[in-house]
Write a structure and sequence with these properties.
- By secondary structure, this protein is mainly alpha-helical.
- It contains 2 helices and no strands.
- Helix 1 packs antiparallel against helix 2.
- The radius of gyration is 16 Å and the shape is elongated.
Length: 74
Amino acid sequence: MHPLLVEGLSDAVGFVGGALAGFWLARLLGFDVFSEGYDSASVLAIAAVGLGGGLGLGAARRWRRARQAERKER
């Protein structure tokens, strides 16, 4: 598979997966992203989604670097 395709797909999966994890964690804690207005619970939920997306993206990039290092050892 082309390296740029692997990079794009892994970044997308990491970001979306992390954002979904942040969304469901916020829902579990009682914060609603889609509540009307911008109350503190809504802002915290939005922050959780953003933080989750960033962490997921970082995890995808760490996975890719580890995969590259593993291939270089062979």
